[in-house]
Amino acid sequence: MAPSSTAPRRRGGRRVAIVHYWLVAMRGGEKVVEELCRMYPEADIFTLVCDRDKLSDTLKRHEIRTSFLQRIPGARKHYTKFLPLMPFALEHLDLQDYDLVISSESGPAKGIITRPDALHICYCHSPMRYIWDQFHLYRQELGFAGRMMMTLAGPPLRAWDVTTSARVDAFVANSAHVGRRIRRFYNRDSSVIHPPVAVDDFVQGSGPGEFYLYAGQLTAYKRADIAVKACSESRRPLVVIGEGEQTERLKAMAGPTVTFLGRQPFDVLKDHLSRCKALLFPGVEDFGILPVEAMASGRPVIAYAEGGVCETVTSPDVGLWFQEQTTESLLGALSDFESIEHRMDPATIRRHAQSFSTDVFRRTMGDFIETRWARHVAGSSAGHGAGA
Prior knowledge:
Elements: E1 10-11, E2 14-20, H1 28-39, E3 44-47, H2 57-60, E4 64-66, H3 86-91, E5 100-105, E6 119-124, H4 135-140, H5 144-164, E7 170-173, H6 176-186, E8 191-192, E9 212-215, H7 224-234, E10 238-241, H8 247-253, E11 258-262, H9 266-275, E12 279-281, H10 289-296, E13 301-304, E14 319-322, H11 327-340, H12 346-353, H13 358-387
Helix pairs in contact: 7-11, 10-12
């Protein structure tokens, strides 16, 4: 996908670019890009690699410019193997025609080089976990050559990641949890704007069902084992939606009250969210969209008290936390929940979820960007005046 020769489109005399690390699926990060595209329909998109067939119509309507990695056979599928090349590829994307640059960071995106007089705002889903706190987990998944490459590439990638944080004029974190990681790794302050959740895609159930629900990848860090053990030991009905490398291990430990449905389409997930007693969320996520989707369905959440869920499940009216990432702690929370669930109102829970809607994101993010832009323009004008 070669860069277009057409000039960037303008809005109000400024040229806008949106930078995302890779566009190969429509996940949480891409949903943020989608909303940014709705906010700035004239913006051009820059990314390292792109698979247009996997993108929404909203993204396809934009000019998408890719790096030289796009031309490497297999890069769109095996893009993570090219991580050591990504800083070089990113810095060779030409953004010199753009006045406002909005980067979407979880993979490398903020390291793009902008004009000195451009405004660069970074929406950070998380500092790159595979070179920081999950470096060793990522490395273990590679073959021998890959492990050796990451051992050598890790230190310079971390140094580059820290250095390029200075290229950002303003950081926006998708949660206070991520904001603390931005402070830890980059020594930068950030504003918190929660990501958009399509709450209107979910329907409020008529009342609690007879089963608890776990949904998500069955990987070690998601800690589905806590939910499976707790419900097996207490003979509580649990439905598990999702699959992953932990599937067989979880099935082996599960009792007769646990049902595994495997990977399911959205409509099945939506139906179960609307009918469950509560969503069990035992892992740690930077934000955690699924708990908001459960609340949009009028159902409460029982979550481990760490990560972004502490910013969404904020009162006993919408759910409970358990304080330790253990089966025993979850069992205590289940007992506490069952003593108060009759007081929980599905309509109240759904109203709470509306505060994380796409409309709220567009309004809040738009206000932030335009305020920073006005300040940026005023500062540039003052600088020109002083130099006259």
